[in-house]
Write a structure and sequence with these properties.
By secondary structure, the chain is an all-alpha fold. The protein has one domain. It is built from six helices and no strands. It is globular and about 40 Å long. The termini are far apart.
């Protein structure tokens, strides 16, 4: 049953992805940085998350997987360290996804940043 769920996740991500082209080098950098944050555990949940990171087809998919990565890191390193680690990924996404996802609203001074932007920005 677990293998079926993994296959279903992969197929669903491929079907829901947009047909737009993304910079493969940027996608690879983001993916590698996220995988490098993963603990070296061989548990089912860790392998499933690692697989989802590997099959993500665009930076937007990886952006939304940050939440799962954060949850996993909270269990191994604590909430504050996990948050800092995940927020350190933020600059990798800047030129790869829509500014609205990054919390920037066009036409407003100061960027209109929200809570998911890293501190000091």
């Amino acid at each position: 049953m677990r293998i079926f769920t993994t296959i279903l996740d992969t197929v669903a991500q491929r079907l829901m992805s947009e047909s737009t082209r993304h910079d493969p080098a940027a996608l690879s950098r983001i993916r590698r940085a996220m995988i490098d944050l993963m603990p070296n555990d061989a548990g089912w949940e860790d392998e499933r998350l690692r697989h989802r990171l590997l099959v993500a087809v665009d930076p937007k998919s990886l952006w939304f997987l940050r939440v799962e990565l954060h949850q996993r890191l909270c269990r191994s390193m604590g909430e504050e360290a996990a948050l800092e680690s995940v927020q350190a990924l933020w600059p990798l996404f800047e030129d790869s996804i829509e500014p609205s996802l990054l919390g920037k609203r066009p036409g407003r001074r100061g960027g209109g940043q929200r809570g998911d932007t890293p501190p000091g920005r």
